[in-house]
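User: I'm putting together a small comparison set for a docking exercise, and I want a reference complex before I start. The sequence is below, and the ligand is nicotinamide-adenine-dinucleotide. Could you produce the 3D structure with the ligand included, as structure tokens?
Assistant: Of course. I'll restate your input first, then give the structure tokens for the complex.
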Amino acid sequence: MSVEIMNTAATAEAGLADNRGQSHDTLLTFPHTINGKPVAGSAFFEVINPSTAQAFARCPDATQENLQQAVEAARGACYSWATLSWEERRRHLLGLAAAIRDHREELARLITSENGKPIARARDEVERSASQMERLVTLQVEDVVLRDDAQGRITMRHRPLGVVGAITPWNMPLVLCVPKIAHALYTGNTVIVKPSPYTPMSALRLGEIACDLFPAGVLNMLAGGNDLGRWLTEHSGIDKISFTGSVATGKRVMASASATLKRVTLELGGNDAAIVLDDVDVDAVAPKLYAAAFGNSGQICMAIKRLFVQRSIYPSLCEAMARIAKNTIVGDGFDPTVQLGPVQNAAQYRIVLDMLDDARKQGAQFLAGGHALNGPGYFIAPTIVTNVAEGMRLVDEEPFGPVLPILPFDNVDDAIVRANNTRYGLTGSVWTKDLKRGEALANRLEAGTTWVNQHVGLDACIPFGGAKESGIGCEYGVDGLKAYMQATAINVPVH
Ligand code: NAD
């Protein structure tokens, strides 16, 4: 397996990651963190920088013995961590947020090296990791008295589950990892985190940074491939899996977690629709729709992936979107002028190009893009596609790349039916000047989150989760915290 790692400090100073000609010995590497200590790998895989298609790091590949050590450490630390108060655990997590900010530049450069996104967006990701954690720990799960009468008092309490296994994808390496740590530890569990093998370096470094901030065994970081993910889900010493990734893998996680009846939270893919009514100001909404579809090169679970536009404004909105796409600067994320980076890995790059070929063969029209850009990285031109319809892969599947199909509609009821005609149900939005009508329509979208006149965004105090095959359960908000806890109804008689 191959994954790109960050370059030397000297190259980072120079601005651009240029890993060509780098020997194996000079590749960056970090250890796992197990039981509060760095643990060097015995086997490694390379991490590829998607802007150069060259290896920039060597990632340790955890063995089953490493996992066993981490499980024993996490179980050993469980009891005393669970006895801390919310306030004590909050203080630890605020310390982690501060440490993340102290390492902002280093973590941002690791993210751009492994994921490809523009460095300014990587800095945002580091900041959001810290700020979301700070916001999450303003919440608390309170005891609730369900009955207090002549028969007795029944109180609903929540206790930690034990050890959480957290498995993350490659599109947002840090901001999908840190909140899982925050949910797990704040609710009194200990945690073993497994980042994506495509983007493990920022998480491994986070493990090192966090080492001294928690008692040994509370936070363990293990890197590895898909097998490590499976071992985590099967392990009888792990009580809950919090998984973010694709629908296909989510189903595997649920199946293997069933053997031990582990709790699972699944945050999965989406094919999210935005519906634009003909009363909008086209020039005002086009940049907002573009940002919500193409941010992170379209590699955001909740990005707009199908845009339904009312017929009378269809030509002008398509044209406005194409204009923005053609003016977008795509390239190496270390170049400060770049607005969109590459697709994160070669396999995903192939999937997106195959979907474009499939649509082209069926008569799709490309108003912008539709092709790869010169390499060596995995660059695809921001693509606006028309003359597309349901039944094409580009419309029915989650492209997860810088590609947006735009579909016209005449009747808004039909648009709602078409938006809902998918096995996904992550998010959706309605765009109109009439907020009341917008809310009524957003209420008919089958999704975990729906918006009016906005799309993409997360507040750590508001639960986020998918409908249908986009997930099970939620994270964030008090409901998200409860998903990391066991509810117990305590029944005490009066006498
Ligand atoms: P993926 O499912 O391929 O991999 C995700 C993680 O699962 C990786 O760490 C991988 O090593 C691990 N894994 C693979 N096989 C496993 C198994 N059998 N058991 C346990 N773990 C296993 O997903 P990806 O390609 O890394 O990420 C892209 C997907 O993630 C997209 O579908 C995107 O929409 C989704 N996503 C969802 C959210 C959300 O909050 N709903 C957020 C970001 C990304």
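Residues 1-21 have pLDDT under 50 and may be disordered. The two ends are 65 Å apart (CA to CA).
User: Thanks, that's exactly what I needed.
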